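Exercise 7b. Backbone tokens:
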């Protein structure tokens, strides 16, 4: 099958003159583009069929999005879906399809796994990537190219959420309200006490577990902050002991009964809203950039990181 791609939306850059700030600001427009693309017949041909057993793989941010992908597909009734880091893929298990999520399409662990799957009879493979010239295209049976969501920053924001928007729209979600919320989240004031916190814990349930993991990674990468992330109901099983008056606990999506009250007893600052978790991630991305700039760091170029992990 030939690759599927879309046209580029216009960036809505705002704030500091950084690539990542412009990429964060452009997300709602990219989501709208992805939602339109998801309705095309070529996308429906490329992505897994209803009832298939599916694995979604990725590394770093892409693995966290894979966690959200898997939960959403299973909850929609499309079929059993699991998420794995590419390096931990269970090769002894049988899958009908493997979806590889990779912004650059060059990550070594992803390419190694796909070569192995291609060496013999195996699952149908799908690549979701931003680069129309990447090697991942030659190793997969079907390709979805979100070239309009590619990024210059090392820190990944726009591609991750745009791929999730495509997946959600493909599963039948109406995205108009989410896009509207996203535009508002770009300008809402950030929680002031969060800017003064020394430690951050992000919690989620279902689809938003992956979102919570990604939010923690963004603050770690961009601002070198002490961050943790957990499924919301796991927080009371030990991790709650770490938070206190200098902490922010950020809950994506509805909070489980009693959790807010328990967190408030610790003295931590609690962030919880009715926003769609993917929209709320925009606020966490903006917080990561703001914290980086307070510390004099460049969020476009985190230390020890490259845009793609290439191993010898």
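Sequence design result:
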């Amino acid at each position: 099958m030939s690759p599927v791609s879309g046209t580029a939306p216009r960036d809505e850059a705002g704030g500091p003159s950084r690539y990542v700030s412009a990429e964060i600001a452009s997300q709602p427009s990219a989501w709208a583009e992805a939602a339109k693309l998801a309705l095309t017949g070529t996308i429906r041909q490329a992505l897994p069929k209803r009832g298939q057993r599916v694995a979604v793989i990725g590394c770093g941010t892409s693995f966290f999005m894979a966690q959200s992908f898997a939960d959403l597909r299973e909850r929609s009734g499309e079929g059993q879906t699991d998420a794995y880091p590419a390096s931990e893929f269970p090769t002894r298990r049988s899958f009908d399809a493997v979806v590889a999520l990779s912004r650059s399409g060059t990550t070594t662990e992803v390419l190694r796994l796909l070569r192995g799957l291609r060496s013999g009879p195996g699952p149908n493979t799908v690549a979701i990537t931003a680069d129309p010239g990447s090697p991942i295209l030659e190793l997969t049976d079907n390709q979805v190219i979100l070239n309009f969501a590619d990024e210059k920053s090392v820190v990944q924001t726009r591609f991750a959420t745009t791929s999730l928007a495509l997946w959600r729209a493909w599963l039948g979600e109406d995205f108009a309200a989410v896009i509207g919320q996203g535009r508002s989240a770009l300008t809402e004031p950030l929680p002031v006490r969060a800017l003064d916190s020394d430690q951050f814990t992000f919690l989620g349930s279902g689809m938003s577990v992956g979102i919570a993991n990604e939010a923690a990674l963004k603050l770690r990468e961009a601002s070198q902050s002490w961050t943790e992330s957990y499924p919301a109901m796991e927080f009371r099983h030990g991790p709650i002991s770490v938070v206190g008056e200098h902490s922010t606990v950020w809950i994506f999506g509805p909070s489980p009964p009693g959790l807010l009250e328990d967190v408030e007893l610790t003295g931590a600052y609690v962030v919880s809203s009715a926003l769609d978790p993917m929209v709320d991630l925009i606020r966490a991305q903006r917080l990561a950039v703001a914290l980086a700039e307070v510390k004099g760091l460049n969020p476009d170029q985190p230390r020890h990181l490259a845009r793609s992990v290439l191993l010898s």
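Instructor comment: DSSP finds eleven helices and nine strands in the chain. The domain at 19-179 is CATH 3.40.50.10490 (Rossmann fold).
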